[in-house]
Amino acid sequence: MNYRLNNLPERTVKPRGKGLTMVMDKGLSLREVEDFIEVAGAHADIVKLGWSTSFVTPKLKEKLKLYRDADIPVYFGGTLFEAFVIRNQFDEYQRVLDEYDMRFAEVSDGSIEIPHEVKCQYISKLSEQVTVISEVGSKDEKKIFAPYKWINLMRAEIEAGSWKVIAEAREGGNVGIYRDSGEVRQGLVDEILTQIPEETIIWEAPQKAQQVWFIELIGANVNLGNIAPAEVIPLETIRLGLRGDTFNHFLNKK
Amino acid sequence: MNYRLNNLPERTVKPRGKGLTMVMDKGLSLREVEDFIEVAGAHADIVKLGWSTSFVTPKLKEKLKLYRDADIPVYFGGTLFEAFVIRNQFDEYQRVLDEYDMRFAEVSDGSIEIPHEVKCQYISKLSEQVTVISEVGSKDEKKIFAPYKWINLMRAEIEAGSWKVIAEAREGGNVGIYRDSGEVRQGLVDEILTQIPEETIIWEAPQKAQQVWFIELIGANVNLGNIAPAEVIPLETIRLGLRGDTFNHFLNKK
Amino acid sequence: MNYRLNNLPERTVKPRGKGLTMVMDKGLSLREVEDFIEVAGAHADIVKLGWSTSFVTPKLKEKLKLYRDADIPVYFGGTLFEAFVIRNQFDEYQRVLDEYDMRFAEVSDGSIEIPHEVKCQYISKLSEQVTVISEVGSKDEKKIFAPYKWINLMRAEIEAGSWKVIAEAREGGNVGIYRDSGEVRQGLVDEILTQIPEETIIWEAPQKAQQVWFIELIGANVNLGNIAPAEVIPLETIRLGLRGDTFNHFLNKK
């Protein structure tokens, strides 16, 4: 850090077991990736190439190399997994992961409907090949799960081999753990946390108010996902209580 | 594309007669233009330097050259045309187009009031010099045209020489073909499409929900405009049914 | 400018006494700063490294140097001042300003509560070291000051040594001089302007509608702050009446 400030919340350092910032890249150029790494490389733990953007991204191998050379793991969004599965091309998906030398993959069912046992079989199978992150929650606004359901799904996916489970929101942040208004479903989150270790969950929190909410609930070292590249520095200051939004939260706890 | 996925909607390729993506550049630097071309050059068909930003843009000639060298036509926003017309400087506007070697120009009346015959005369006159894109619809929230009026205006402008007609929205997307809420005026769009060939219309659709709406109505190869540079890759995935928003739309049609 | 347009509002030029554009940098990379300077250097008068982002910004000295070499003054956001004060580290804050060779500093009380005399003492003290910009208004939505209070606070801070006073909004623009809806508190602004010279005030106006509102009220050369780097060119066109939003405002005044 550039100067000394006393009484900051303790922040984990990379490689982090918790306090992860997962970033969403939805089409950065090579030079923009370099810029991102310069500015946010110390704070970004893992990068998702959003949904199926990797399909139409030029210079994909060079891009993946830039992230890896900076020791930032990178993976393809879960919608890509789903796009292969719905087309009965899962084997080809596994070959694609190999071809691009991917070490991580996401398993989700936000857009497709598959029995949960089948989803867990995909998790098991892929976890022999890569580190699996799985996502719970639908992109469909009409599908609201009860808390016990979220807990059962998360637990089963962790048992099937997921390294972390992601609590789904869409990029705009209005489904899954959020209400239409973008507000967090607090009762749901509280109940999940009674059963699932918080370091195992990555909360998708693309909006600032959501980031603040989770940091105030869980602390500086909550895992947050779908962070825009330009928001990693702002998020880091929110984690440290150095932006107005959480300034007093951490001071009042001392 | 970086790997093979079956059953994707067919997408036209550049140079496209339909399925155009028109991008709004409101002040990119030269390096940012290079980055944009690297990432989105294969998907961006035409670039508008938004409204009168070209007036205060440094290194304008270098910028225009970057786009042209990448075979991406570029033009000045319609508000610039209007700024010259309202000052009785139309002749000077024509000289400016020549000075900057512009091959395209936009004719609009979003901020000025001119009789429609006069607008069509400008279209005729400019179409001897450049390829003309004309814009229908006012930036004024209080001016709501009936569908038959939209159709008459569009038809007259095409007859006067317009290559394409743009259905106006403001950058924020809340006038013209959209309600205050950003919602599309569906009845209006349906009626326009009964009379005007859809490949002749570019729908301004700066917001994702609007892009999704037009893609679901008209298909992967609808012409869309006022797309932010960083949204061209995301839009391309929406066109292909590879983002959650249109994932099931295209699959269900097979 | 790239071509001649008659009847534009007169615009001050750098270095400006009024008509300032204060830009918020919340984490640009070095290359992005270079790009920003290329595009907007002629229009950006002063840059704030937002709140405490300087704490976690890599290559901070190189970044400050880029701005200074372009003759754009740069300073740390007021929340950083507050972060040092609340920790009883004010002396250290002064040393940090020296270490980074800062010529400007912001004094604010958006997140901390200090008696106004104490705030003014900080302004006096710091104004011996640097040029001070002070900010009036709380980040707390529940703290609404009456107009006479705003005037007294501003006047006292100017007397204590502030070069300019900033009328607070948060980045999102929903506190201080704005209502929850982002709308400006017009009566408040009118009353402030009867007592405080307008060139002494920088109005935080991150949203376009707010920029338009102040430009229509005060003119092309109103001081505006918290402008996003990519919005400086658009703002310049709004100041000149060359974007739809203010197109007719300036013409009607001729």
Q: What would the keywords be for this entry?
A:
11 helices, ComA_synth_sf (chains A, B, C), Aldolase_TIM (chains A, B, C), Phosphosulfolactate synthase (chains A, B, C), alpha/beta, TIM Barrel, 254 residues, homotrimer, ComA_synth (chains A, B, C), eight-stranded parallel β-sheet
Question: What would your notes on this structure say?
Answer:
The structure is a homotrimer of 254-residue chains. Helices cover 43% and strands 14% of the residues of chain A. With 254 residues, chain A is an alpha/beta fold. Chain A has one domain (21-253): TIM Barrel (Alpha-Beta Barrel). Chain A has an eight-stranded parallel sheet with strand order 3-2-1-8-7-6-5-4. Chain A starts with 20 loop residues before the first strand and ends with a helix. The mean pLDDT of chain A is 93. The A-B interface holds A 26-32, 50-60, 79-80, 82-84, 86-87, 89, 92, 96, 99-100, 110-112, 139, 170, 172 and B 1-7, 31, 34-36, 38-43, 208, 230, 232-234, 236-237, 240, 242-244, 247-248, 251.
